[in-house]
Amino acid sequence: MDTETPLITVDHFAMRFGKTTVINDLSFTVRRGETFGFLGSNGSGKTTTIRALLGIYEPSGGTLYVGDGPYKVDGTIKLGYLPEERGLYKKENVISTMMYFGQLKGMSAQDAKEWSLDYLARVDLEDKAAVRLDKLSGGQQQKVQLGITIMNDPDLLILDEPTKGFDPVNRRLLMDMIEEHQKRGATVIFVTHQMEEVERLCDRVLLLKDGTARLYGTIDEVKKSFGGNNVIEIVSEHTVPKNDKLYTIKHQDGKMVTIEPKADMLAIQRSLTGAGVAYTRFELKQLSLDDIFLEIYGTESKEGIHA
Amino acid sequence: MHNLRTVIKFETVRTLKKKSFWIAALAIPVAGALIGMIIYFSNKTTSTLSQQLTQAQYSVAITDDSHIIAPKILSAIHTQTVPSKQAGIDAVKNGQLDAYFYYPQDISKGNVEVYGKEVGLFDDSRYQSLAQDLLKQSIAATTNANVRAVLQDRIAYSATTFKDGQQDKGFLKLIAPGMFLVLFYFMLVTFGNQILTSITEEKENRVIEMILTTIKPTTLLVGKLLSLTLLAFIQLVTILTPLLIGYFILKDQLSLPSLDLSSIPFDPLAITLGAIIFIISFFMYTGILMTLGAAMPTAKEASSFFGMVMLFTFGPLYAASLFISSPDSTIVQVLSYFPLTSPIPLLLRNAVGNLTLPEAGVGIALLIITTIIAIGIGVRIFKFGALEYSRRLSLSEVIKRKN
C-alpha cells in the first residue's frame, strides 16, 4: 500500500455558520493506512470538520477530499463512521438493523447476517440478536453501533469519541478491534480525549484550537515542537528563576513548575540550590500529550479537553 | 439509487411487523363485522317480536263512528263490543280489555284514539300499529290493486335520461371514477401521520448521521415514499377483502342492497384520469408531509401542522355542490388549479363528468410540478434539518442556507 499518498486532503478549509466562524483556514492530510488523532477541546470544530469531510455540511471555503474528490456515499471508498451523536432504530431488533446497514454498505443479506452473528458472538451479545434495540443497555447499544461501523471492512474508519459510554473491559475490546483494522490497512481517524489511547494508537495527530491547527505531525514531532520529550517537574515554595542557559520554564501552576532541561539534572539542581530555591520534588518526566494539552489549553480542566 | 430496494424492503417489512399496523388495518373490518352482527341480531329480534306480536291474542274492543273498518276484518281478530266509548276506556283501565280503539266520525279531522294496557316502553306502540293496520286494510279492501299499490307505496319507477342521443347512466356513472375520491380520502386520513412518523424517525433516533454517510437522502426519502405507498395499498386490501367477503356471505341476512356490477358503467377515460389524479395527488401530499416531517424535530411537532394540510385538502368538500352545478365559476376554477386544494375538485368533477380534458391536463401538470417541488424541498430540508435535533427550520432559512 502507498502509505505516503494522502487518502484525505483538507485544503484551506473554512466553515462559517451565519456570522460565527467555526473553522478558519485549516489544512492537513491523512495518509492511506495511518491512524490519525484528531484532537481538540469542546467546540474547537472537530465534528464540524468531519461532517464537512463527509458531505453533511457544505464548506464555506476550501476543499475537503476523500481520495480524488469530495466524499460520495456511492463512491469507491468504503466508509465506517461512528458519529459522536449516536442512535439506532430503537424499535427494531439487533440483527435486522445490522443487516439493513450491512446491505446499504454493499453486503449481501446472507453475508450481512453471518457477519453480524459472528460479531455479536464476539462481543457477548449472541443471545440479543432478536432483541429490540431499546431493550439493550447503553453499553450494549454502543457495541451494536460499533459493529455497524466496522461492517464490510471499511477503507476509512472515522471514530468520533468511540470510547464514550464504554467500561474499561469493553474499551479494551474496542481498542483491539481498531488495531485489527489498522493491521488490515484501514485508514483510521480517531477523535478522542483519551490521550493514552492516542499515544498508543495514532501515527500522527492534529490539535485544533479556535478553528485552527495548533499542533500537527507525528507524536514525536509534536513533542519536539513543544520542547522535546523530557521535562522536569519541580515543587517548591520559592520562585524558580529564569535561566536560559540551563532550562526554559514551560509551565507554572502554583507551587508546581515544569521546565525543559538544556543541561544535565545535576547542573540544574546546583543552580537552583545556589539561587536559594528549596524544593520538595525534582523529577525528570517524559513529556506526555496530556502535558501538552494542559499547556495549550492553559487553565481549562482536563475534563473540558475533548472532542 | 442502488440502495432503493433495500430501503423499501426494510421500511415495508418493519412496518408490517408492527402490531399497530395490523390493528389499524383490521379495526375497520372488525368494526364493520361487529356493526353487522348488531344489525343482524337486531333485525332477527325485531322480526321475532313482530311475529310474536302478530300471533298474540288481544282482547280488543272498537267503536267505529267512521264506518270505515270492515266488519270482516274485525271478526278476524275477534274484537269485542262495548256499549260506549267511555265503557271501552273503563274496560282497559280495569284490565278487562287489552286495548280499545275509537275511530271518530271524520277521521280527517278528529284523532283516532287508542287506549291500551301498559306492556313496556317498546311494546306499547303495538296498539297504535294495530289500529293503523285495521284502517289501512279496511280501505285497501274497498279499492282495486293499483290504488292499493299506490296507497301502500309499492310502486316501482324506472327513469331513463339521454345525453347526446345516448342513454345516460345517472348516478351509476359516478361509482367507478368516484372510487378514487374515496380512496384518496382514505389513504390520506389513515396514512398521513404514518408519513410524518416515518420521516422524523431517523432524526428522533439520532441515526441520521450514519444514514446520511451511507446513502443519499433522495434514496432514503423516495424509498420511504414508495414503501408507504405499498403499505397503504396493503392496508386498503386488508380492509376491503374481509368487508367484501362479509358482504357476499351476509348480504341476505343483513338485508344489504344488491351490488349489480353489470349495471355500473365503466368509462375508460374517466377511470384513467381519476387514477392519474389520485396517484399524483397522493404523491404530492406525501411529498408535502415529508417536507413537513423533515422540517420538524419530532413527529409530535409535525402533527400539529398536519391539521392545516388536511384543511387545505378536504376544505373544498364544503363546496362540493358547486363543483357539480357550476364548474365554470371562478371559485371552482381556482380550487381546481391551486395544487394544495385541487385533488378533491379534480377527482369530484372527473366523477360527475364536468372536467374537460384540457382542464384535467392543466390540473395534472400543476400537480406533477408541485410534487417535484415538494419532494425537492423535502430532500433539501431533510439534509439541512438532519442535525437539527431540537429546532424546526423555516422555509426561508432552507432556501437561503448553505449549511
The chain-level mean pLDDT of chain A equals 87
Mean pLDDT of chain B: 82
Q: Record the strand order, biggest sheet of chain A.
A: 5-6-7-3-8-9
Order of strands, widest sheet of chain B = 1-2-3
Q: What is the assembly state of the chains in this entry?
A: heterodimer
Give the N-terminus to C-terminus distance of chain A in angstroms.
30 Å
User: Which structural class best describes the helix and strand composition of chain B?
Assistant: mainly alpha
Order of helices and strands of chain A: EEEHEEHHHEHEHEEHEEEHEH
CA-based shape of chain B: elongated
Largest sheet of chain A: 6 strands, mixed
Query: Biggest sheet of chain B, open or closed, and with what strands and sense?
Result: 3 strands, mixed
- β-strand amount of chain B: under 5%
Shape of chain A: elongated
Give the uncertain stretches of chain B in residue-range form. none
Gap from first CA to last CA of chain B: 24 Å
Computed CA radius of gyration of chain A, to the nearest angstrom: 23 Å
Would you count the extended β strands of chain B for me? Answer: 5
Structural class from helices and strands of chain A? alpha/beta
Report the helical percentage of chain B.
55-70%
Count all strands of chain A and give the number: 13
Strand composition percent of chain A: 25-35%
